[in-house]
Every structure is written in C-alpha cells, then in structure tokens.
Amino acid sequence: MKPGSLLLQALILGLVLSSCGTTKSSKPEKPDMEKKPAVVEGPKLVGRIATIPADKRFVLIQSYGKWEMEAGAILTTRGPEERSANLRVTGEKLGEFAAADLQSGAVEKGDAVYSQHTPKPVATPATPELPQHQNETPSENVQKNN
C-alpha cells in the first residue's frame, strides 16, 4: 500500500465516524409541546368542623376564607388518632358556615376540613357542524314523448 492511500483511508474513516455522532435520527424531533401531566395540588385546608347535629348525618363547616366549593364536591377531614371522614358539599351556606353530608368515617368538632384541588380540564371549542347538503337534483316536470 502506498503511504498516501493509508492517510486517505484514515481521513475518510475519521470523517465517517465523526459524522455518525452528528447525524440526526430518522425520527423528527418533537417540540417541547409534549403532553405534560396535569399538576395536581395537594389538599388545601378550607375550614374546620364547627357543629355536628345529634343525628350525625351532616356537619356545619366553618370556612377559612371565601367558600368556593361547588355542591357535590368531596371534602376530607382529619382529626387526632388518625380519624378521617369523607364529606359531600350540599351547596347550602350562610356567612362563614357551609353544610356537608357525612359520607363515611367519623368526625368530631374541630376536625380539619380539606379539599383536594383538581383543576378542570380546559374545554376545547367544538367545531360547529355544518349542514351537509346532498346533491339533489330538482325534480322538474318534464314531459316525455313516447
């Protein structure tokens, strides 16, 4: 082999190997707009159990701040000794107090009331459906000659 051809082969091999690291894959790169999971915030302290009527089927919650719970929203309570309960907001409120039905568990006066904030998905506007006209030919009264 000639010394020049060996040098040429080394240069070609170097170019081939260096180009392998810089070539892009056959898949097109996706922009940073990949679907990211919705950020779910932790439980938010919204109030405390203020009153429990004798039948223990519902409770009155003293809210901490503006009450923004929708009727049907589920709340959780925590008390000493690992006591917890699930409540369903009734939608009834008066001043800083709101009513909730006891769904499960046990509650006592003073237990903390939490909401689990789950953001509502953004509604995408639906494209209005356009009426589809069939290719109808108008029927004309054409007299046929036989």
Count the E strands: 6
Q: Please list the strands of the largest sheet in the order they lie side by side.
A: 1-2-5-4-3-6
> Runs with pLDDT <50, length 5+?
none
Q: State Rg.
A: 35 Å
> What is the arithmetic mean of pLDDT?
76
Helix count equals 1
The helicity comes to 10-25%
Main sheet: strands, sense, barrel:
6 strands, antiparallel, barrel
Structural class of the helices, strands and pairings? alpha+beta
Order of helices and strands: HEEEEEE
Shape: flat
How big a fraction of the residues is strand? 25-35%
Cα(first) to Cα(last) distance is 97 Å
Characterise this structure.
The chain is of the alpha+beta class and 146 residues long. Helix content is 14%, strand content 32%. The chain has one helix at 3-22; strands at 43-51, 58-63, 74-79, 83-94, 97-105, 112-116. Strands 1-2-5-4-3-6 form a 6-stranded antiparallel beta barrel. The longest helix has 20 residues, at 3-22. The N and C termini lie far apart (97 Å). The mean pLDDT is 76.
Brief account:
The chain has 146 residues and is an alpha+beta fold. 14% of the residues lie in helices and 32% in strands.
Key descriptive features of the protein:
146 residues, alpha+beta, 6-stranded antiparallel barrel, 14% helix, flat
What are the SSEs and their pairings?
Layout (H helix, E strand, L loop, with lengths): L2 H20 L20 E9 L6 E6 L10 E6 L3 E12 L2 E9 L6 E5 L30
